[in-house]
Amino acid sequence: MSGDNEQKPVLYSYWRSSCSWRVRIALNLKEIPYDIKAVSLIKGGGEQHCNEYREVNPMEQVPSLCIDGHTIIESLTIMHYLEETRPQRPLMPQDCFKRAKVREICEVISSGIQPLQNLIVLIYVGEEKKKEWAQHWIMRGFRAVEKLLSASAGKYCVGDEITLADCCLVPQVFNARRFHVDLRPFPIILRIDRELENHPAFRAAHPSSQPDCPPEVAK
């Protein structure tokens, strides 16, 4: 490990961003101290679109992580980098098939659900239809996740150890509740979410615990 590791990583994050939240959970589980640089996705039309932040992340999205003298964007890429460079407290199983199952769940959430109910898409869909749109795509994705979990879950998404799949699932459940999705058809998802809601690493990463969380929302 290089001397750059002595410098605390900086996470560009927005309190309610589920992609930022995934990374916060992973950093907490691996006990990696980090600083947050808040990027408001709504203030002034969105700070992510300013020239300064575009230099950090050309996609104009959060999260971005400055670590080891590098800047890395995209939440799954960041989490896999943390796993590869800091293998202590692993968040991926040793077994190759189980690793594939973790990636499968992560991909369904990060590619098949979250982008379709992301802020930028909902603005395009429009105020009148955004709730119905978000509910449709979350329900569709959760039907797939629930089916996958029926074969892979133990205490958590894949077996009895917390993995990157759990880091992705919990923020997506929060999003589902925000859009008033009926979660009763997804008992395994609900059980895993309940299992993790009071875990210290997950609680510390929760939107209401973030420095940029509005006071009226913070617990």
From TrEMBL:
Keywords: Phenylalanine catabolism, Tyrosine catabolism. InterPro entries: Glutathione-S-Trfase_C-like (IPR010987), Glutathione-S-Trfase_C_sf (IPR036282), Glutathione_S-Trfase (IPR040079), Glutathione_S-Trfase_N (IPR004045), GST_C (IPR004046), GST_Zeta (IPR005955), GST_Zeta_C (IPR034330), GST_Zeta_N (IPR034333). Residues 95-215 form the GST C-terminal domain. It catalyses: 4-maleylacetoacetate = 4-fumarylacetoacetate. Pfam families: GST_C_3, GST_N_3. Its EC number is 5.2.1.2. Its cofactor is glutathione. It comes from the Eukaryota. Residues 7-90 form the GST N-terminal domain. PROSITE patterns: GST_CTER, GST_NTER. Pathway: Amino-acid degradation; L-phenylalanine degradation; acetoacetate and fumarate from L-phenylalanine: step 5/6. Gene3D superfamilies: 1.20.1050.10, Glutaredoxin. PANTHER family: MALEYLACETOACETATE ISOMERASE. This is maleylacetoacetate isomerase. It comes from Iphiclides podalirius (scarce swallowtail).
